[in-house]
Design goal:
The protein is an alpha/beta fold. 44% of the residues lie in helices and 15% in strands. The strands form five sheets. It has a seven-stranded parallel sheet. It has a seven-stranded parallel sheet with strand order 21-22-20-23-24-19-25, sandwiched between helices. A five-stranded mixed sheet has the order 3-2-1-4-5, with helices on both faces.
């Protein structure tokens, strides 16, 4: 590869090209897949470096004391990169800043070829969750100790670039030619890089070919685990020792109970405190059972975070310690896997914007990796995800298709699934080979059961499918022109009837988020549903091409679920945001929670173990009220390491109708704390509106760059990672951060809870639960709040080394009518309550200790 590639990274005082300044530049020249030259310099600037930038880059004014002006090094930089391909991670940022500085020197810099490594790495590494440079280097085991230092980032980017070229160099030539064709239409010049790889092409790995697509056929196989010739207690103790953990009698008891439960084919409920080591406990029990009984066991969790922790951390640790390979199978429906026919359908689609082209290139490389074509492994977001989801919604995945799927069901193994799939109303019994089930994070089962207990008819989805159906008709091979005209008329009439239906339903809307309405047989709405059903039935019986019939059948299926609900129960739920018909959904509840859990869990598995920090959310269900013999409470062993919980008694009682006044009264505490304690603070709230309101106060008092705010369109994992990178800062988050989030900090941590996490009275789940329980507040809302609060406390103290403080501004935790329901959560804390004077004294005392 004879071209030179200049990999550039700059650090600046901020992101505004008009007002911010450059403080460091790093350049790495790559040729023939080697680093041949580097350039590194701090750059003098007139601005003060913001605290956030200092925290992020570890660059302060001292580093720039003897740094040159850009004018002193401009000529050297230009000479170095003049004839190179310009490469950067988020290329527009670095290129525009550099061009601005060059223009001041009257240097006109416009590189002939530009490559953005964000796009390139998305194509070559399509399975990565995120594309921040530090995350990529960690995944590829490339060293990057000083992330956000220009030269370190430039070297790391160059090394990832070289690794990516080596990876692409063994792709099939047909795949490379397809990538080249798409790259030529992209906004940057990746085609030049692909062309260089093509002309120097020498050898390729062996890939399978089907329907013109090359793919990797996974040949992974597992040997059956050999029997363990030890008693369970000996095996547990030896495993804990090999892991380097401290032996705890209570943890052994927990693991042994789980093992015994698998042997006895019964049901057990276990409440295990946060940070109690329950994951390792049940994995040791599973390995011992799997080894000696040679029977597969199913494990269900609620979050991807925990699944990955189990596979990538806990199981890997156990395998290394025991020097074994544990057979593991992810259990998903075929709909979760890519078929080669579906990929070809996307590749043959004529649409060609940047996101669609990027997706097409990702699919070509994705199927060359050993991951079974699991769609969840694709890093899709934004326009690519919208396009992919729409194409997949219109695709008939039930027809014969070639899936790249590897099945190890013949080998006794641990099957791992999620609660959503476990409770889904699937046609095939994909869990029939499992007799034993362990459910971690079992408190989440109720919400997943609710999500699977109803069907949704969404206005936007219906209109999109109709639009796609109309577009398909002129291309359909029908028997006569009359068939086309009749079909167009019927679909146009259908379109009008659907608009009429949603217009009339919107009249019922009362300004709430969700309402329940009664539909009388003599009503116009009932008649419209019947007309729509008749039109759809008639259209599907006509002489239309399969692609049109498939879309009409999908449309009909959407309507049937709601139509049957109306015919049988004469009722319907309407959900709508901001009085906007386009956001309207019609919801029909089709099965009770008890029936769903009975059908999907209790009648399916002979032994069942449910683990959670608290099972209160499920206490109204008979299935989760076993006798004392089958209930076990396991407390963590470091509860004696108590943190402080402070509850102000001079903040008014929370009322969601007066949120602004309430948050204003919290601000004096937040302000004093942030002024006097150098710490990282997680502030948990119940809505994005609360976040925006609190942020508006904080930015007036503190450096905005140290305040991270959750918004509805930002990935929570990325936000958590960004917060963990900071030495100090404030993170404003909603209830999604109450659990499953790793709050890393070696110093003094603080979690603030603005108001107790009660659901909004108009929440859909509350509406759907009304016919499940006697008292929706006592049996559902309150237990759910207790669960969430318990999870929130777990963000603070997770091991003996954690130090910190919990502040709850909602006095109901101590003084409310239902405060006794929270008392068990407060046991690990020194609970203090008082006014602002008491609080300042407590903070001053803490400040002296840290």
């Amino acid at each position: 590869m004879k071209r030179k590639y200049a990999v550039v990274d700059i650090e600046t005082t901020g992101n505004n090209i008009d007002s911010d300044e450059m403080i460091q530049i790093g350049i790495v020249i790559v040729q023939d897949k080697k680093i041949i030259e580097t350039f590194d310099s701090f750059i003098s600037c007139k601005q003060q470096i913001p605290a956030f930038i200092q925290s992020l880059t570890k660059i302060d004014e001292a580093h720039l004391l003897n740094a040159p002006e850009f004018s002193e090094i401009a000529s050297d930089i230009y000479t170095l990169i003049e004839d190179c391909v310009f490469v950067a991670h988020n290329v527009q940022f670095d290129l525009r800043f550099l061009q601005k500085y060059f223009s001041r020197m009257h240097i006109d810099y416009h590189p002939n070829y530009i490559i953005d490594t964000v796009d390139w790495f998305k194509i070559v590494y399509p399975s990565l969750e995120r594309y921040q440079l530090k995350y990529i280097t960690d995944e590829l085991n490339i060293n990057l100790d000083l992330a956000h230092r220009a030269i370190d980032d430039a070297v790391a980017t160059a090394e990832v670039l070289i690794a990516s070229i080596n990876k692409v160099s063994v792709y099939p030539t047909d795949t490379l030619k397809r990538l080249y064709k798409y790259a030529k239409i992209m906004r940057y010049n990746m085609e030049e890089l692909i062309f260089e790889i093509l002309i120097e092409y020498s050898a390729e790995k062996h890939f399978e070919n089907h329907s013109g697509l090359y793919y990797y056929k996974k040949q992974q196989s597992f040997d059956t685990l050999p029997p363990i010739h030890q008693s369970f207690d000996q095996f547990f103790e030896n495993t804990i020792m090999k892991l380097g953990f401290k032996y705890r009698e209570k943890q052994f008891e927990l693991s042994q109970r789980i093992y015994n439960q698998l042997m006895q084919h019964n049901t057990m409920t276990i409440e295990a405190d946060l940070g109690s080591g329950k994951t390792v406990s049940y994995l040791i029990a599973l390995i011992y059972y799997l080894s000696n009984q040679q029977t597969s066991v199913l494990l269900s969790t609620s979050t991807i975070f925990l699944q990955k922790q189990i596979i990538n951390d806990d199981l890997k640790q156990l395998e290394a310690a025991l020097q074994i390979q544990v057979p593991v199978q992810f259990i998903k429906s075929k709909r979760h896997y890519l078929s080669l026919q579906f990929i070809n359908e996307i590749l043959n689609d004529e649409k060609e914007n940047h996101d669609i082209l990027l997706l097409k290139m990702q699919l070509l490389t994705f199927i060359l990796e050993p991951h079974d074509g699991d769609i969840d492994r694709l890093n899709l977001n934004g326009g690519r995800k919208i396009y992919f989801d729409l194409m997949y919604a219109l695709y008939d995945y039930n027809r014969d298709a070639y899936y790249i799927y590897h099945d190890i069901s013949n080998t006794p193994h641990i099957g791992i699934t999620n609660h959503a799939h476990l409770l889904s109303r699937r046609k095939n019994d994909i869990f029939k080979s499992y007799d034993h089930l362990i459910v971690d994070e079992a408190h989440q089962l109720l919400d997943y059961a609710l999500n699977n207990a109803y069907d949704t008819l969404n206005y936007q989805n219906i209109k999109y499918i109709i639009g796609q159906t109309i577009k398909s008709i002129p291309d359909s091979k029908v028997q006569s022109l009359n068939d086309i005209h009749n079909s167009e008329y019927e679909i146009t009439l259908l379109n009008q009837k659907i608009d009429d239906l949603f217009d009339r339903l919107s009249l019922y809307y009362e300004g709430k988020y969700v309402i329940k309405v009664t539909i009388d047989e003599n009503s116009h709405i009932y008649a419209l549903f019947k007309e729509i059903n008749d039109i759809l039935t008639q259209l599907q019986s006509g002489q239309l091409e399969d692609v049109v019939k498939t879309k009409l059948a999908m449309l009909h299926q959407y309507f049937l679920t709601v139509w049957i609900q109306i015919k049988v129960y004469k009722e319907l739920y309407i959900q709508m945001k901001n009085n906007n018909k386009a956001s309207m959904s019609l919801i029909s509840k089709s099965i009770s929670i008890n029936d769903l859990l009975t059908n999907r869990i209790f009648n399916k598995f002979s032994s069942k173990v449910f683990l959670s920090g608290t099972m209160q959310t499920l206490s109204f269900l008979e299935q989760f009220n076993p006798d004392a013999e089958h209930f076990y409470n396991y407390e963590n062993t470091f509860s004696k390491y108590k943190a402080t919980l402070f509850v102000p008694n001079d903040v008014p009682q929370f009322n969601y109708k007066h949120t602004e006044q309430y948050i204003e009264s919290c601000m004096q505490y937040i302000h004093y704390y942030l002024e006097h304690i150098s710490s990282k603070v997680l502030i948990l709230m119940n809505s994005y509106a609360q976040i925006e309101l609190l942020r508006s106060y904080l930015v007036e008092l503190f450096d905005p760059s140290l305040i991270i705010s959750q918004t509805s369109d930002v990935n929570t994992v990325k936000l958590n990672e960004q917060f963990n990178l900071l030495d100090k800062g404030v993170f404003l988050a909603t209830q999604t951060f109450y659990e499953g989030v790793d709050f890393k900090y070696d110093g003094f941590k603080t979690v603030m809870i603005i108001s107790l996490p009660f659901m909004h009275p108009d929440d859909l789940n509350i509406m759907l639960m009304r016919d499940e329980v006697n008292d929706v507040f006592m049996d559902y809302q309150l237990p759910s709040t207790v669960n969430k609060l318990h999870q929130a406390t777990g963000r603070l103290i997770r091991n003996e080394n954690d130090r910190g403080m919990l502040i709850c501004f909602d006095r109901r935790i101590l003084e409310g009518k239902f405060s006794t329901h929270f008392s068990h959560i407060l046991k690990p804390f020194h609970v203090e309550s008082g006014n602002i004077n008491t609080f300042t004294e407590a903070i001053d005392e803490i400040n002296q200790k840290i």
